[in-house]
From TrEMBL:
It comes from Streptomyces violascens. Residues 274-357 form the Transposase IS116/IS110/IS902 C-terminal domain. It comes from the Bacteria. Residues 4-162 form the Transposase IS110-like N-terminal domain. This is IS110 family transposase. InterPro entries: Transp_IS110-like_N, Transpos_IS110, Transposase_20.
Length: 407
């Protein structure tokens, strides 16, 4: 076999080629893109001889991008190595903490030569699954960015205009109508001058119910007395508030547009029907779960393997007389977030899920641990459905947890 370590950067790749004995065959600095891939193929042809593409093994610290997809399309075995795993592996070479790109490429080649059985190959996901992953991750990232921007806006308002937080509490400060009103009156003085006839049309444009009552509540809250800052300082705060508000409005627009893209790509996927049959999963949650699990049906050898990847299964720490079972905290956070959402929603959608959750709570298991255990069970059910290509069935899914029938 031919073992390759690929230490990638934004504009280049440092690679090292080894044989099965660990002997260094070649090293090169390759440019990103078509030219770099062509040179890599030349190196492999020169040193690989008559090897089949599947006998070329590449270790690289990413599982995304056109470079990785090209390696997979070429038929090579590609292993995406967690940077934390790579860092621990490199410690065997030196304790000083020294680092170089060539040294990193050498370590990655050694990892796929020595520890390949402990690594996970990059999944051979379909084009449809990769498309779902791109839009689902982008959609979630935009939501996270909106939350961060909202927190900055809220912090700013608390410092100079707390009345606005109370006035727009019922609307939510991430809603576009509340933000438009805040832009219209970004200072306490301007807010106190807003009339109901100015507020109501904004609420009407966004189809708010009980507009007159809401306008009256907002006006009253904005006219509450509060401690004042110097005019120049207030103006500076107002400029910062307006900038944050406009950014959240733009994010709202893009989140809505990306949501449509997520739904469109997800519903085209052949596994969408199975995912949507699961309790607690809608189009957005389903797209997120599918994108993180992928659709390579040979990737997870068992339900346990899928649960371990999801991070829902516990880990055991045993040493001497000590034996503890703990939750996994090193995991795919995007997938964990989606599965937590599914488990919460499944409490209403599935009687079996509700019984299972209540059973955990009756054993004095806390809210989050019980929800995590439910999520773990749902991942196992999903694995079975995907393996057998069948949709979810409530009776079959919870048959082992059903109450015994009285004779």
């Amino acid at each position: 076999m031919l073992l390759i370590g690929d230490d990638w950067a934004e504009d280049h790749h440092d690679v090292e080629l080894q044989d099965e004995a660990g002997r260094k065959l070649a090293a090169a600095n390759l440019p990103e893109g078509v030219a770099g891939i062509a040179k890599l193929h030349e190196l492999i042809a020169r040193h690989g001889g008559e090897l089949e593409p599947a006998e070329v093994v590449v270790g690289i610290e990413t599982d995304r991008g056109s470079w990785v997809q090209t390696l997979i399309a070429s038929g090579y075995q590609v292993y995406a190595i967690n940077p934390r795993q790579a860092a621990r592996f490199k410690e065997r070479y030196a304790s000083s903490g020294a680092k170089s790109d060539k040294g990193d490429a050498h370590a990655l080649a050694d990892m796929v030569r020595i520890d390949r059985d402990q690594l996970r190959p990059v999944a051979g996901d379909s084009d449809a699954a990769q498309a779902v992953k791109v839009v689902a991750r982008t959609h979630q990232t935009l939501i996270w960015e909106r939350t961060r921007t909202f927190q900055r806006l809220r912090s700013t308002l608390r410092e100079y205009f707390p009345a606005a937080l109370a006035a727009y509490a019922d609307l939510s400060l991430t809603s576009t109508d509340a933000l438009e009103l805040l832009i219209k009156a970004p200072t306490p003085a301007a807010g106190a001058k807003l009339t109901r006839t100015q507020i109501a049309p904004v609420l009407a444009r966004h189809r708010r119910r009980h507009r007159d009552a809401k306008a009256a509540t907002i006006q009253t809250a904005l006219r509450e007395r509060q401690l004042a800052l110097p005019e120049q300082v207030t103006a500076a705060y107002a400029a910062a508030t307006t900038a944050h508000a406009r950014l959240i409005i733009a994010l709202n627009e893009q989140i809505a547009a990306m949501e449509e893209q997520v739904k469109a790509h997800f519903l085209k996927h052949p596994d969408a029907e199975i995912y949507l049959s699961m309790p607690g999963i809608g189009e957005i949650t389903g797209a997120r779960v599918l994108s993180e699990f992928g659709d390579d049906h040979g990737r997870y050898a068992s339900a346990k393997a899928r649960k371990n990847y999801a991070g829902t299964s516990p880990i055991t720490r045993a040493s001497g007389k000590s034996h503890t079972v703990q939750a996994r905290y090193v995991r795919n956070n995007r997938l964990a977030d989606a599965l937590q959402t599914q488990a919460f929603c499944a409490l209403r959608a599935s009687p079996g899920a509700r019984r299972y959750y209540d059973k955990q709570r009756a054993r004095d298991v806390g809210y989050n641990p019980a929800l995590r255990q439910l999520g773990n069970r749902l991942v196992g059910i999903l694995h079975g459905c995907l393996k057998t290509r069948t949709t979810y069935d409530e009776a079959t899914a919870w048959s082992h947890h059903a109450h015994p029938q009285l004779s």
